[in-house]
Design goal:
Blueprint lengths: L3 E6 L14 H8 L7 E6 L6 H8 L3 E5 L6 H11 L5 E5 L1 H5 L1 H5 L6 E3 L4 H10 L8 E4 L5 E3 L27 E2 L4 E6 L2 E3 L8 H5 L4 E3 L2 H10 L4 E4 L8 H13 L5 E6 L1 H6 L1 H10 L1 E9 L3 H6 L6 H13 L3 E8 L6 H14 L3 E6 L7 H8 L23 H15 L2 H10 L1 H20 L2 E4 L2 E4 L4
Parallel strand pairs: 1-2, 1-3, 3-4, 4-5, 9-12, 12-13, 13-14, 14-15, 15-16
Antiparallel strand pairs: 5-6, 6-7, 8-9, 10-11, 17-18
Helix pairs in contact: 8-9, 9-11, 14-16
The structure holds cobalamin and iron/sulfur cluster.
Cobalamin binds next to α1, β3, β4, α4 and α6.
């Protein structure tokens, strides 16, 4: 049995990253083993580089690392260089090792991989101290052979999980949006998505199953979160709009005044305008719509199951209720050309999204898209480091030209004048945000302390 657990979130902040949200994955794992271990520590490398000293001081008997982004492979190697100086069992989990366990275990410094949702698997592994009988683990046996234990069934009832162990956060960490110094927190109300877009990682990770927590369980957690701005990281928060309405009703009834940003599908908004109106009242201020493409043929090709009418309607409804729409488009699939980037720009203008993001199609290893393009010999590289929305697919456009066009269009769209217009249109929302911000500041000044999960929680950090 392991007793002293060190968990590492190895995501150093890179230039241009404006938000530093808390990562919930490790906090979920920690909350689920607190009753069976002596001590747990989480190092969040968004704020701390002190891995060696932490290991020396804390003396863990197990190290757990998260791996979310394929492109961060070098960072993972750097961490392993440090951790492997000590003779400590090292286990890795997250979206990348789940989908590519053999690639990940080819590094001898990693003893085991936990595939899929970690809570139950990690708990059993920590209890048993060895992987042999634990479902959902891949490991190397004494002869060095990689063994994949059978998959673990998904957690049936998400309400049965304890809330993420936010009380383990180091008080010196400042989770915030850089420019505005607004404290933020993260929340996860559901897991997975039942669509099967061929470029999507979460779809593969959760095997097209969507599960949700109950509205009561979610709102009780929100009540305990001091931050006023909450990012809801669900892949598809709006998968069940009846549930969304219930959450809004509860938030309104309880008089909870916070702001939320979500990721959603356009059809959920276009089919439920009354619920969108309620969302706005409950504090839902921003939505990221994965619009992907203005071309219905391209949307069908990647199995997005989305139509242009819904997209247009969703934006109109969001604007009617003063919900800010950020958009994500993808370009660079097999038959796409320079003209497709221009089309996206024109389309974004026409439908009037508030923020335009265009990403080169990135077929992450393990997705169907990756297999398709690799088999057709259309990948420029298979180097994981480059799977960071840099150009990895061979299209008629050169990567340099592609990047130039993409950046120019995005800059042109998100111009200063556009921001001024946005500010004017969303002035009521902006005032609401400002009020929230001021409340945080005055709260910080008073240095009040809140009770949080039975522990003293420094109001300053909220
Ligand atoms: C939140 C988030 C972010 C946050 C960062 C994370 C944070 N601080 O919270 C921010 C906004 C910064 C971010 C940025 C980016 N992101 Co992002 N992000 C996500 C998102 C939506 C949710 C992750 C999450 O919190 N999940 C909730 C937790 C509870 O689940 P989990 O992470 O899977 O953890 C569970 C298990 O995996 C396991 N587990 C995890 N770690 C460990 C460790 C151990 C030891 C064990 C045992 C188990 C275990 O147990 C956990 C509990 O069940 C995912 C989508 C997704 N569904 O994963 C994309 C995702 C990870 N992001 C992605 C991408 C591409 C990006 C960006 C490149 C986007 C961009 N254009 O800039 C950047 C990259 C940042 C960088 N510079 O490298 C991709 C990654 C694809 C890939 N293979 O690389 C994803 C999968 C979305 C997608 N497009 O498909 N992201
Ligand atoms: S709808 Fe969104 S989350 Fe769901 S599979 Fe498609 S891209 Fe992924």
């Amino acid at each position: 049995m392991f007793k002293r657990i060190l968990l590492i979130y190895p995501h150093k902040v890179k230039p241009g990253e404006v938000i530093r949200p808390p990562y919930l994955g490790l906090e979920y794992l920690a909350a689920n083993i607190e009753d069976i271990v002596n001590d747990i520590k989480i190092v969040d490398m968004q704020f701390s580089n002190n891995v060696i000293n932490t290991i020396k001081k804390f003396q863990p008997d197990l190290i757990g690392i998260s791996w979310l982004f394929t492109s961060r492979i070098n960072e993972i190697k750097e961490i392993l260089k440090l951790t492997s100086q000590f003779d400590i069992y090292t286990i890795i989990g997250g979206i990348v090792p789940t989908i590519c366990p053999d690639d990940v275990l080819s590094d001898n410094r990693i003893n085991a991989v936990i595939r899929g949702e970690g809570e139950e698997t990690f708990r059993q592994f920590v209890k048993e101290g060895k992987p042999n009988n634990v479902l959902g683990i891949s490991f190397r046996d004494e002869e060095g052979k990689i063994i994949h234990n059978l998959d673990r069934p998904r957690i049936k009832n998400l309400d049965s999980l304890p809330y993420p162990a936010r009380h383990l956060r180091d008080k010196r960490y400042k989770y915030k949006i850089f420019y505005w110094n607004v404290a933020v927190d993260s929340l996860l109300t559901s897991r997975g998505c039942y669509f099967k877009c061929d470029f999507c990682y979460p779809a593969k990770f959760y095997r097209n199953i969507w599960r949700s927590r109950s509205p009561e369980n979610i709102v009780n957690e929100i009540k305990k979160i001091p931050a006023k701005l909450i990012f809801i990281w669900d892949d598809n928060f709006t998968a069940d709009m009846v549930r969304v309405e219930e959450i809004c009703d509860l938030l309104i009834k309880e008089g909870i005044s916070k702001l939320y940003a979500i990721q959603a599908r356009a059809d959920a908004f276009s089919n439920h305008p009354q619920i969108v109106s309620k969302m706005s009242k409950a504090g839902f201020a921003g939505v990221l719509l994965g619009i992907e493409s203005p071309s219905i043929a391209q949307l069908d090709k990647c199995h997005k199951h989305q139509n242009i009418k819904d997209v247009k309607e969703a934006i109109k409804i969001s604007h009617k209720h003063k919900i800010i729409v950020s958009s994500s488009f993808m370009v660079g699939d097999l038959n796409e050309t320079e003209e497709d980037i221009t089309k996206i720009y024109r389309f974004a203008k026409e439908i009037n999204v508030d923020f335009l993001n265009i990403f080169p199609l990135t077929p992450f290893p393990g997705t169907d898209k990756y297999e398709e393009l690799k088999n057709k010999g259309l990948l420029i590289t298979t180097d994981w480091q480059r799977f960071f929305y840099t150009h990895v697919v061979r299209t008629p456009i050169t990567p340099e030209r592609f990047e130039l066009l993409r950046t120019n269009y995005v800059k042109q769209y998100n111009s200063l004048l556009h921001h001024v217009k946005l500010f004017w249109f969303f002035r009521s929302r902006a005032i609401q945000m400002l009020k929230t911000l001021l409340r945080i500041k005055s709260h910080a000044k008073k240095r009040t302390y809140r009770k949080y999960n039975g522990l003293k929680y420094d109001g300053k950090q909220s």
